[in-house]
Specification:
250 residues; 12 helices; elongated; 75% helix; 0% strand; mainly alpha
Length: 250
């Protein structure tokens, strides 16, 4: 299962840059591919990082209160809203991308970082709501009611009580939102047409179109683009386990 990852690292260090003639171990490793990847794809990596972090912040800002409302309110429309959220997850991305292209063309959001953040958030927010609602549904209403009795308003009770309790689910949902945005290719391909705003996934795609005979730079870019996701997964590992399985507050 990890062989593709090993081969990606191995090919990135091959001096020949050709995967067909590459040995199974880089006896004489070359870092030319990494030098080229950093010089040519560095701005694209920064763009991806800004878009991904923006998507996390925007998705959590929208999804956290929505998830809490869907978890605590007892109205008939809650089930309808949850069904609509599930259906939204089933809409093909190309349909959303085409619709967003027409809207962005009118709003002037094409080739812009805010446009990519909004586009990636449309994919992340429904999933984040479902993750956080599964956790928040176990928060006792008495905790928030006690805060209200002490004089806290709805917003303060949510920010000071609900969000700290939901830390594990916040981190888990935020990590998934980051991964969704970091690996996005469809929205990047549809909603950007210039080099000023170009995520790294699109940069790798354009490498394949022009430099397919030299794989060391392609694989080096793939390795570099994998590092942020790997680092986040390692740092948030314990929170992910608690956030994915925790559904109640003891």
């Amino acid at each position: 299962m990890l062989f593709p990852v090993y081969w990606m690292v191995n090919a990135s260090l091959q001096p020949s840059g050709n995967t067909l003639t590459a040995s199974f171990f880089p006896v004489n490793p070359s870092f030319d591919g990494y030098a080229r990847a950093i010089s040519e794809q560095g701005p694209n990596l920064v763009t991806s990082l800004i878009v991904s972090l923006g998507t996390v912040v925007f998705s959590l800002a929208v999804a956290a209160p929505a998830a809490y409302a869907l978890a605590q309110f007892r109205f008939r429309w809650v089930n309808i809203a949850l069904l609509a959220i599930l259906i939204s997850q089933m809409i093909p991305g190309i349909v959303i991308a085409n619709a967003l292209y027409a809207a962005y063309n009118d709003l002037g959001l094409l080739n812009s970082i805010p446009g990519l953040i909004l586009a990636d958030a449309t994919h992340a927010i429904p999933f984040v709501i479902l993750i956080m609602r599964a956790f928040m549904i176990g928060i006792p209403a008495s905790i928030v009611e006690a805060a209200r009795v002490d004089g806290a308003g709805l917003v303060r009770a949510f920010v000071s009580i609900v969000l700290p309790i939901s830390r594990n689910s916040l981190i888990t949902a935020g990590l998934f939102a980051f991964l969704f945005s970091w690996s996005d290719f469809l929205f990047a391909l549809t909603l950007t047409t210039t080099e000023e705003v170009r995520p790294v996934t699109l940069g790798i795609y354009q490498y394949l179109g022009t430099q397919v005979s030299n794989w060391s730079a392609v694989m080096a870019t793939a390795v570099l683009s994998s590092l942020p996701a790997i680092a986040l997964l390692i740092l948030a590992q314990k929170y992910i386990a608690a956030g994915a399985t925790g559904g109640a507050v003891k």
